[in-house]
TrEMBL record:
Statement: the UniProt record of this protein carries the keyword Nucleotidyltransferase: no
NCBIfam families on file: HTH_metalloreg (NF033788)
UniProt-listed Pfam families: HTH_20, Rhodanese
Residue ranges of domain HTH arsR-type in the record: 6-100
Name of the protein described by the UniProt record: Metalloregulator ArsR/SmtB family transcription factor
Organism whose genome encodes this protein: Mesorhizobium sp. WSM2240
Domain of life: Bacteria
Length: 230
């Protein structure tokens, strides 16, 4: 048995894990992987990284136990490892929001606009799901939606929203969401909807946070035609 201080040994492992999380590109990769399984090439496209750079970061995340991978044909698909991986990312965000003035300033400038109504929390969403007095809109791309979405969510990607307005209900509030609280797609969707006479708010979080807090994601496709028929 090693004579090394076991507490110090554990802390060295904890520090190595923290270092793996300590890069903006790896945090961005984890955000996308939290939406579903992706190949290196897909993740490179989604993050704007080169394939070589994305691959390097992914291998470090895998060695650190934060992501796992599997073969699918000629591709290697990456997904979050088992355990509270995304909760660790959420904890980093929470500490930064609480303690870093720079973070609070960015949030205030981009995500807390004076004319915004209060975003919808998961607690409010779960309560309202009992009555179905609203429309839940997923404005991510189709590949993300098919990997998993909130129960009952209708898929209308942001770039198709204006063309789909005629099929949306004016008599129900529309709650839009994307990849989480720092994703601007839902903010832009809400702006478009309000500008066209719809009552709309954004969901405070996204699918990854929903699953991290015990929610179950759906994978079936729900189209606007079903909404139009109601």
């Amino acid at each position: 048995m090693s004579s090394e201080n076991p507490k110090r040994l554990l802390n060295s492992h904890f520090a190595a894990l923290a270092r793996a999380l300590g890069h903006e590109h790896r945090l961005e990769l984890l955000e996308h992987i939290s939406q579903g399984e992706w190949s290196v090439e897909e993740l490179a496209t989604r993050t704007g990284l080169s394939i070589a750079n994305a691959s390097q970061h992914l291998h470090l995340l895998r060695r650190s136990g934060l992501v796992s991978s599997r073969k699918s044909g000629k591709n290697v698909l990456f997904r979050l490892a088992e355990g509270p991986v995304f909760e660790a990312v959420m904890a980093i965000r929470a500490v930064a929001e609480h303690n870093l003035a720079e973070v609070r300033s960015v949030i205030a400038d981009y995500f807390e606009r004076p004319d915004d109504m209060e975003p919808v929390s998961f607690a409010e969403l779960r309560e309202r799901m009992r009555d179905s007095d609203f429309l839940l809109l997923d404005v991510r791309d189709e590949a993300e939606y098919r990997q998993g979405h909130l129960p009952g969510a209708i898929h209308v990607p942001l770039d198709s929203l204006e063309a789909s307005l005629a099929h949306l209900p004016l008599d129900r509030e529309i709650i839009a969401y994307c990849r989480g609280r720092y994703c601007i797609l839902s903010l832009e969707a809400v702006q478009t909807l309000r500008a066209n006479g719809f009552k709309s708010r954004r969901l405070e979080e996204g699918v990854a946070e929903w699953k991290a807090t015990g929610g179950i994601a759906d994978t079936g496709m729900q189209s606007l035609s079903a909404v139009s028929a109601v």
